[in-house]
Amino acid sequence: MNDKDRHMYITKRNRPIKKLLLTAAIIVIGICSYLAYAKSANIWPVESYQSDTPIISEPQVNKPLSDKESTQKSKTNWTQGNRPTAGTGIIDSDGEGVNKNQTGISSATNEITLFKPTKGQKLSNGAFIEGKSSLAIVQYRLKDNINGVISQGQLTVKNGVFSGTLEIHTNASTGTFEVYSFDDGGREVNNIKIGVKY
């Protein structure tokens, strides 16, 4: 057997091995492509890869609303915010019926003045909340001595005044009522806090 014949013999003998290797490579590339597609298209079976570590969501930061957001939220009957006690909150009346010339308790910057409720006032359903402010929105928080926070939200300031009607459901005898605002960093400022009775 000369060199030329030997070379052809080896080439013919290696042809099936080359075909097999090429087929295997194509199959591996196809499987890898499918797995990459399945993972990116969220069709990958996630259950088999779940860990025992619980997923912890990031805390929600309570930031001041823009004027546009506050206008949209004030269109609802109840002011937006947490109402941990069902049926407790303030129905925003957009400053209707408020006399600006009353005296009340003012924040350190005089940006918020609370007329009603007054210190030690007994609050019940239908109690009127009112005050004046140079801001677009005033936040409120209502607490009782049993549950803590029973309602919080916001009141829209119109023509320099805010108002609302309280709806309350609590078995507590005392608590606090607060009004405040947020600064640009989301911190509470202009806080006015008074003790109330139920």
How would you explain this protein's 3D organization?
The chain has 198 residues and is α+β, with helices and mostly antiparallel strands. The chain folds into two domains: 47 residues; 131 residues, Sandwich (Immunoglobulin-like), CATH 2.60.40. The strands form two sheets. A five-stranded antiparallel sheet has the order 1-7-4-3-2, with no helix packed on it. Strands 6-5-8-9 form a four-stranded antiparallel sheet.
Features:
198 residues, alpha+beta, Immunoglobulin-like, 2 domains, 5-stranded antiparallel beta sheet, 4-stranded antiparallel beta sheet, rod-shaped
Gist?
This protein has two helices and nine strands. The chain has helices at 3-40, 67-74, and strands spanning 89-92, 105-106, 112-116, 128-133, 137-144, 148-156, 161-167, 174-182, 188-197. The model is unreliable at 44-84 (pLDDT under 50).
